[in-house]
Specification:
There is one protein chain. This protein has 9 helices and 4 strands. With 188 residues, the chain is of the alpha+beta class. Helix 3 packs across helix 5 and helix 3 runs parallel beside helix 6. The radius of gyration is 18 Å and the shape is globular. The chain starts with a strand and ends in a 12-residue tail after the last helix.
Length: 188
C-alpha cells in the first residue's frame, strides 16, 4: 500500500536530489518524488519514520505530519514551483491556481495560511516574486521591462515601487550593488 509523505523545505531540484539520496541511503523505496512530496512504495513503520525524520532534519528538511501544515507546504510549493522553476509567464489567478491544485476553497486556504504563517498568502507570493526578480536582475539577461512582463507586473514602475518597498532599493541600485542580498528560497 502506497504512502505519501510531505517534507518541509523542499524548494528546488537540488532538494529533490538530496531527499532522493537520503531515501536511497536509508533503503526506503519510493514511487515518485516532487517538491514537498514523496510517494513511497509502502507505509513506514514508526522506527523507520523516526530514523528518516532525524536524517531529514540533519539536512535541513522535516517531515510534516499534521494536515494543516501539509496544506500550507503545498501552497508554498505551488508558488515556488510556478515562480522559480517554470518558464511560463505568471499571468495566472493565484486563487484559482491554488484551489484547483489543492481542491479546497481558496478563502479557507488563504485564512489558514495567514493564521499559521506570520504573513498573508498574497504577501508570500509577492516576496517570492521579488526574490525571483532579484535573481533575474543578477543574471542580467533580461531588461527590467522583460522582467516585469515575465513576472506579470502591469508596469516597470509598479515593479520598481514594490521592489523598493520590500528591499529598500530600486532594481537599478541592486544591479549596481556589490551586495545582492539574495535569500535562499526556504528563508523567504
Amino acid at each position: 500500500m502506497n504512502e505519501t509523505i510531505h517534507i518541509k523545505n523542499m524548494v528546488c531540484p537540488r532538494c529533490i536530489s538530496a531527499v532522493s539520496n537520503i531515501l536511497e541511503q536509508l533503503e526506503i523505496p519510493y514511487v515518485s518524488i516532487k517538491l514537498g512530496e514523496v510517494k513511497l512504495v509502502s507505509s513506514l513503520n514508526a522506527k523507520t519514520k523516526s530514523g528518516l525524520s532525524k536524517v531529514l532534519q540533519n539536512s535541513g528538511f522535516s517531515l510534516i505530519d499534521d494536515r494543516k501544515s501539509q496544506l500550507i507546504e503545498q501552497m508554498k510549493t505551488l508558488v515556488v514551483d510556478k515562480i522559480h522553476h517554470s518558464s511560463s509567464e505568471l499571468n495566472i489567478k493565484w486563487a484559482d491556481y491554488v484551489s484547483d491544485n489543492i481542491h479546497l476553497d481558496y478563502k479557507y486556504l488563504s485564512a489558514l495560511f495567514s493564521s499559521v504563517e506570520s504573513i498573508t498568502f498574497e504577501q508570500f507570493i509577492i516576496n517570492q516574486k521579488i526574490e525571483r526578480v532579484k535573481e533575474l536582475i543578477v543574471y542580467d539577461e533580461l531588461t527590467l521591462s522583460e522582467i516585469a512582463f515575465r513576472m506579470n507586473y502591469s508596469s516597470v514602475a509598479y515593479l520598481s515601487n514594490q521592489f523598493k518597498k520590500l528591499t529598500g532599493m530600486t532594481p537599478s541600485e541592486l544591479k549596481k550593488s556589490t551586495n545582492k542580498n539574495r535569500k535562499s528560497l526556504d528563508e523567504i
